[in-house]
């Protein structure tokens, strides 16, 4: 008896991945359409049944600025000792508003979208990154207001000061997203993480030279504490914004050593802040990728 010929099927090499796991933040670039849909959803949810909508992007920082300006500028007299203190303060406030919004929302967004995550699989990193996009939508109107005021008082930036704005923007965006990935992962397993996020956002404005000048820290704290203070990437980001939006408006009015931002800002502290921010982002991405396969089951 002759055996029937056996059909041969060409071997194929397929890559298998653990269920619920992807390539980390690299998946965001390959899913731009989904990212835009999530951003649209977050905006719609936030302003559902709202009369003013995105106008709140102007109202909230305006009220925040007014409160801080009266408390620090008028009551404590900082407005008298520092030229264009309003610009100095608002330059730092826009940095902190960007950080707190990205950090706070990205740390909560996984739990907040638990029902969707349990139903279908899509790259989980899209959710924290969408928080970054939404925060940018609120950030740039504030920068526009700052620019208008700057132009009124005679802002004349150099190329390096424009670069300072871009680099400061990158530092705060990356650092906030990095911490959001870390605490967003922790929040899935330990809901107490939200309390730590609230605490950090509550004190972070006071841990950087937003309402006061960095020289007050240098003249008060011991050297090791000042060094630790400068290692905070947000301190560098705030000082870069001061250099970009405030420094050129007071140059010549008071001595350079009094008004100028931190020494070695560009040569030392900016590279350090960039390394720390992107290093934290790498750690956050690895941590997020390691645990995201368990998100649906924990939620």
Helix and strand composition category: mainly alpha
Strand content: under 5%
Report the C-alpha radius of gyration, rounded: 23 Å
Number of helices: 15
Poorly predicted sequence stretches spanning 5 or more consecutive residues: none
Helix percentage range: over 70%
Described by the principal axes of the CA atoms, the overall outline is globular
Number of strands: 0
Mean pLDDT: 84
End-to-end CA span: 61 Å
Major sheet size, sense and barrel closure = none
Number of domains: 1
Order of helices and strands: HHHHHHHHHHHHHHH
Keywords: ATP-binding, Cell membrane, Membrane, Nucleotide-binding, Transmembrane, Transmembrane helix, Transport
GO molecular function: ABC-type transporter activity; ATP binding
Pfam families: ABC2_membrane
Membrane topology: Multi-pass membrane protein
Kindly describe this structure.
With 299 residues, this protein is mainly α. It has one domain. It is built from 15 helices and no strands. The longest helix has 31 residues, at 159-189. The mean pLDDT is 84. One of its GO terms (molecular function) is ATP binding. One of its GO terms (biological process) is lipopolysaccharide transport. This is Transport permease protein.
